[in-house]
Specification:
The chain is α+β, with helices and mostly antiparallel strands. The chain has helices at about 10-15, 25-45, 50-55, 70-85, 150-155, 220-230, 250-260, 275-290, 320-330; strands at about 90, 100, 110-120, 130-140, 160-170, 170-175, 180-190, 195-200, 210, 240, 260-265, 295, 315-320. The chain folds into two domains: about 10-200, 2-Layer Sandwich (Fructose-1,6-Bisphosphatase, Chain A, domain 1); about 210-330, 3-Layer(aba) Sandwich (D-Maltodextrin-Binding Protein, domain 2). The protein is built from nine helices and 13 strands. An eight-stranded mixed sheet has the order 2-1-3-4-5-6-7-8, with helices on both faces. The protein has a five-stranded mixed sheet with strand order 10-9-11-13-12, sandwiched between helices. α6 (about 220-230) packs across α9 (about 320-330). About 45% of the residues are buried. It binds 2,5-anhydro-1,6-di-O-phosphono-D-glucitol and manganese (II) ion (2 copies). 2,5-anhydro-1,6-di-O-phosphono-D-glucitol binds near residues 246 and 247.
């Protein structure tokens, strides 16, 4: 039973035995992500200050080239995981190819691979709007000790052993699951510790928020257009409220707490939509299901999709189960 004043560090250790093949490795891995997220949080929080405190132009006071925050976040997570020698492979939204981590003696005995969207919603950085990080963890399928292969990353989402996200918002929250429910930990910035603030997170049974970029309306498939009209119709508990941040992780977080659906479907120019299956959709789908919600591509379960490429995109409908059921119903009329 989670205690409300528990720190994330204590929680990870206490719940270690829940993991199927517990050796402490997954705990240490989640700990590394927790630490890297603190560094990114620190940087995100002073995003607007860098140009004032540093020098004008492309370099800061130390003469280092200033990086875009998504590149910085990528470096922090990737280097953090490599330096701690805690994973055998990493795939990130920011890099074309996956990385195989050699390990200290050139032979890597670690079992896990991490897939990460280091900064989700990066277009919001310049305007003080919430952004986040999303991560997904799998056991490798190829032999331990050998370099990782593409197939270690191309696993269906239901094989995830853990997934989580961090929202750098009005406060910073770390939410994750290892397949035993979803828990959220809020960072106390004064002492740099995350405390359990949202134990056993669950989607409400019903929701009244829909989150979609309606600017694409004319390019949506007919099923999506009809579903949007359904959300707006004056009937029963509708019209729903429209809320769209443009950082999926923040939209997802709000919808899980307040009750809503997020969707990013195909459009006439992007038949697979925009969102990435491995770095964005699978981890949020795993969390959604663990929290009693649902995630679909409009026709079937996200977590059952067999990926064929690293940066694969997929239409995504995610949130309160009854709302996703309804969206599917509209989509399937035109199958
Ligand atoms: P990223 O910043 O990692 O590229 O992801 C942005 C994603 C998602 O978080 C967001 O909901 C969506 O793209 C916004 O896209 P539109 O601007 O097309 O609505
Ligand atoms: Mn993203
Ligand atoms: Mn990103």
């Amino acid at each position: 039973m989670p205690q409300i004043n528990q720190s994330l560090g204590e929680f990870i250790i206490e719940n270690q035995n829940e993991f199927k093949y517990s050796s402490g490795e997954l705990s240490r891995l989640i700990n590394s992500i927790r630490l890297a997220a603190k560094m990114v949080n620190h940087k995100v929080n002073k995003a607007g200050l860098v140009d004032i405190v540093g020098q004008i132009g492309e370099t800061n006071v130390q003469g280092e080239a200033q990086q875009k925050l998504d590149v910085y976040a990528n470096d922090v997570f990737v280097n953090g995981l490599i330096n701690r020698n805690i994973v055998c492979g990493i795939a990130t939204e920011e890099e074309e190819d996956f990385l195989s981590i050699k390990g200290r003696q050139g032979r890597n005995e670690n079992k896990y691979v991490v897939l990460i969207d280091p900064l989700d919603g990066s277009s919001n950085i310049d305007v003080n709007v919430s952004v986040g990080t999303i991560f997904s963890i799998y056991r490798r399928v190829t032999e331990v000790g050998k370099p990782v292969e593409l197939q270690d990353f191309l696993q269906p989402g239901h094989k995830q052993v853990a997934a989580g996200y961090i929202v750098y918002g009005t406060s910073t929250i770390f939410v994750y699951t290892t397949g035993h429910g979803v828990n959220g930990f809020t960072l106390n910035p004064a002492i740099g510790t995350y405390y359990l603030s949202h134990p056993n997170m669950m989607f409400p049974e019903k929701g009244s928020i829909y989150s979609v970029n309606e600017g694409h309306y004319v390019h949506f498939p007919q099923g999506v257009k009809d579903y949007i009209k359904y959300c707006q119709k004056e009937e029963e508990d509708r019209p729903y409220t429209s809320r769209y941040i443009g950082s999926m992780v923040s939209d997802f977080h709000r919808n899980m707490i307040k009750g809503g659906i997020y969707f990013y479907s195909s459009t006439s120019s992007n038949p697979q939509g925009k969102l990435r299956l491995l770095y964005e959709c699978n981890p949020l789908a795993f969390i959604a299901e663990q929290a009693g919600g649902k995630a679909s591509d409009g026709f079937g379960r996200i977590l059952d999709i067999q990926p064929t490429e690293l940066h694969q995109r997929v239409p995504f409908f995610c949130g309160v189960k009854s709302m996703v059921d309804k969206a599917e119903e509209f989509m399937q009329r035109y199958d």
